Request: fold
Amino acid sequence: MPRLKNYDSGNFFLLAGPCVIEGEEMALSIAERIVTICDRLRIPYVFKGSYRKANRSRIDSFTGIGDEKALKILQKVGREFDIPVVTDIHTEQEAILAAEYADVLQIPAFLCRQTELLAAAAKTQKWINIKKGQFLSPDAMQFAAQKVIDSGNDKVMLTERGTTFGYQDLVVDFRSIPVMQKTGFPVILDITHSLQQPNQSSGVTGGQPEMIETMAKAGVAVGVDGLFIETHPEPWNAKSDGANMLQLDRLEGLLEKLVAIRQVL
Reply:
């Protein structure tokens, strides 16, 4: 894993931050708060923020503040707090651009089978976090990982984020975590995206944030290596995915409970 503080603590590691970078002040304040919490609880931490959102329900949905502007904010967060940062990419060209600023490149679930995208990401020699498609079995993720390896990069992480259940729901099969761990790569549970309710008639994705603690506790109990949580000071005012993000003020209490479960195990 890239320059992670507290990596020897025995805790799960955490990828957390806003869904999308909305501005510098917001990103820095969220990062500062999470760094303080993670340092106290000795949780290895990676700041998460999408510099651009490509998968939107409607053409008028917010996609970002500008690619380079957002990427420079991500880079500043990483340098100011001495932490790695992760962001999504969607094309081969984006892999090259984002690699100049981010430590971990994330492959969105809908794109996890895109061979050229995986190969381009691999060639940057950054860590690659591949989200499991809502349409894939956990066993099938070995082939996505193998594409990265065959392209000359063995720095791979795999993320569970739910499987499509009907048209407007997702379900997490917790058996997928040990199945994907058999690959030898770290496995992450994306808690907040697993609680999305897609395909709403309004064109805005819904969610079940009241189930975040339940989902997180289950993941830690199963022995997941890392957790992914999108968080925002005011989810109801967030420009993207506000319906399933965790309110920032609730993060510390949640992590305290999760660390306690991890210590018992």
About this structure: The first helix runs from residue 24 to 41. Helices lie at 24-41, 67-81, 92-98, 115-123, 141-150, 176-181, 212-222, 251-264.
